[in-house]
Each structure stands twice: as C-alpha cells, then as structure tokens.
C-alpha cells in the first residue's frame, strides 16, 4: 500500500500546538523530526533518559509529518490544516508554515521509525525498540520491547510518559486495567509488567489491536492476560457492555482532550469505587475543559501534572 506523506515546515516552539491542531482534525500517526535535545532537568531527574547518538545542533526548525492513504481526497483536509496553521500564526511563531508532500510505501513508512526511536527510561521502566540490544546498565529495570509498526506508540512522547509515571505510582499488583486508545499496547504491556492481573484495551484502529497483541508476544506475555476490542467507548453501547461496569481498578486514556471530554461518563461507569483514572494527551490550554468533564462524571481530582505543553489528570471514583 502507498501513502502520501504531508510535511508541515514549522518551528520547534510551535510543535505541540501544531500536533494538537492535527489531532483535533482527526489526524493520527504524526511524525516529528527536529534536533531538540532532552532537557537537562529531565536527565538529572531520571524521568526521561535519552540514549540515542548526539543530535545535530538545534536550528529552531521542525518538520511535522502525517500520512494519508493514496487515493484519498485530501482537498478538504488540507484546507482545514491550512486554516488551523493560520489560526496558530496569530499567536505563536510557526515559521514557514508551509506544507509539502511526497509518496511513500507502507514498508518505508514503518521502517523510517527506526531512525528516530531509540531506547529510553521512564521511572523504573526501560523501553527499547525490538531491533536494539539491551543496555547492560538498565537490566535492573522493567524492560518493555516495542515495535510501533503502523500504530505509532513508542512511549517517547510526553503524554505517554506522564501516563507511565502515574501508573507506577497508582497501579497495584493484581489490579485490572482498562487502556482506552491502546495504540501499540505500551501502557497495557507496562501494566502487566508492573503486576496487573489483566488488561482490557480499546482502539478505533484495527491495526492497533494487532500491534498490541504482537508486542505482548514480543514481551513474552500470555495473550490470555489481555482482551482488546475495536470501537469507540463513547458511543458504542455494545462495547461499553463488553468492557463492563464497575470492573476496573485503573483506567488509562492517552488520547485527545476532545475525546476524553465526552467519554468521561463512560469511563467513570467502568471504574470500581476507589478506582483511579489517568487521563493524558491533554494540550495545556484544554486542561480546564477536561477537568470539568471529569468532575461532572463524578470523579475527584487527585493530581494534575505537566510535561512541556502537555498535561495529565489523575482522578478517583469515590
């Protein structure tokens, strides 16, 4: 299968806002190419340790790529992207703000990730691509091996790191976990490695379900420890019944704010009394809206955390 790759030429300063705009338009599988170093504070704090080779000097530019299946009518979508860039230009420096395109084959698209995905740590987790050797220095950590494939979930993005850090704080051995928007399965796999008894995952993309199962096998996890379903938990009543009510000790959702907001009630229904909901994927200016939705669903806010321009909210069902 061939794809059209669209590249937005922008600035590192505008990266998060451009990505949030694309996600609000329903565009997933976003690739960011820049030379930003890991911040010193993150290195010293042990939250995020970058292990890849030295990057070229940061020149302030960034390329944000997204992919559309060949033959898709992209006229309306590109017009929406251009309008979104114009809106952002009004209050931040987006640089060129131009869009270019080229063709790519699916196998090239998947393999290109190997240039940018390298091993790193988040708390006590050591996350590495399947094609890299294990670093001896990290053998005392819980190792997660990931091949993102077409599902684009490496764990390296701030939103996933926020989830993983909160999971290490709140997840207990024997817990049941619901992973909404499971992607490559990194959160589900991490939960099982941390001692969860069983995980249930949902995603609107069938490719993600297959990718999650493959990554479970890569991590030598019994497939019976996870059930995964295609569907939208907000609107799919059958999926809500399949997932179950008042069943889970922990629910994680590393998805967009505009998806979390209408889904909060369905998520709360799936939680046991005393269960914890970890919501991430929230661009900072959307935090108040997500907070209101979570409170309206009957949950009590425990924590709000940020990393860069992204936020997570942790809440409890009383």
Automatic annotation (TrEMBL):
S-adenosyl-L-methionine binds at residues 160, 181, 203, 254. Its EC number is 2.1.1.-. SUPFAM superfamilies: S-adenosyl-L-methionine-dependent methyltransferases. Pfam families: PrmA (PF06325). InterPro entries: Ribosomal_L11_MeTrfase_PrmA (IPR050078), Ribosomal_PrmA_MeTrfase (IPR004498), SAM-dependent_MTases_sf (IPR029063). Keywords: Cytoplasm, Methyltransferase, Ribonucleoprotein, Ribosomal protein, S-adenosyl-L-methionine, Transferase. It catalyses: L-lysyl-[protein] + 3 S-adenosyl-L-methionine = N(6),N(6),N(6)-trimethyl-L-lysyl-[protein] + 3 S-adenosyl-L-homocysteine + 3 H(+). Signal peptide: none annotated. It is found in: Cytoplasm. One of its GO terms (molecular function) is protein methyltransferase activity. GO terms for biological process: methylation. Its main location: cytoplasm. CDD domains: AdoMet_MTases. It is an enzyme of class 2 (transferase). GO terms for cellular component: cytoplasm; ribosome. It comes from the Bacteria. Methylates ribosomal protein L11. Belongs to the methyltransferase superfamily. PrmA family. This is Ribosomal protein L11 methyltransferase. The gene is prmA.
């Amino acid at each position: 299968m061939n794809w059209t790759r669209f590249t937005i030429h922008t600035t590192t300063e505008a990266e998060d806002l451009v990505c949030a705009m694309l996600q609000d338009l329903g565009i997933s599988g976003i690739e960011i190419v820049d030379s930003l170093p890991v911040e010193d504070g993150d290195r010293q704090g042990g939250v995020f340790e970058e292990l890849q080779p030295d990057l070229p000097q940061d020149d302030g530019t960034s390329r944000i790529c997204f992919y559309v299946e060949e033959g898709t009518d992209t006229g309306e979508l590109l017009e929406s992207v251009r309008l979104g860039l114009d809106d952002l230009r009004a209050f931040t420096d987006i640089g060129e703000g131009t869009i270019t395109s080229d063709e790519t084959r699916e196998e090239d698209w998947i393999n290109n990730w190997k240039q940018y995905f390298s091993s790193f740590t988040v708390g006590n987790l050591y996350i590495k691509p399947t094609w890299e050797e294990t670093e001896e220095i990290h053998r005392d950590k819980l190792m997660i091996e990931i091949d993102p494939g077409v599902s684009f979930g490496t764990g390296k993005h701030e939103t996933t790191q926020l989830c993983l850090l909160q999971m290490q704080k709140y997840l207990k051995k024997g817990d049941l976990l619901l992973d909404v928007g499971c992607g490559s399965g990194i959160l589900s796999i991490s939960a099982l490695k941390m001692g969860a008894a069983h995980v249930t995952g949902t995603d609107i993309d069938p490719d993600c379900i297959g990718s999650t199962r493959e990554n479970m096998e890569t991590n030598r996890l019994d497939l019976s420890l996870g059930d995964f379903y295609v569907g939208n938990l907000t609107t799919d009543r059958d999926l809500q019944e399949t997932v179950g009510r008042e069943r889970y000790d922990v629910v994680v959702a590393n998805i967009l704010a505009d998806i979390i907001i209408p889904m909060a009630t369905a998520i709360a229904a799936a939680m046991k009394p005393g269960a914890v909901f970890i919501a991430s994927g929230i661009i900072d200016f959307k935090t108040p809206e997500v907070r209101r939705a979570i409170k309206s669903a009957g949950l009590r806010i425990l924590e709000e955390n940020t990393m860069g321009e992204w936020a997570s909210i942790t809440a409890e069902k009383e």
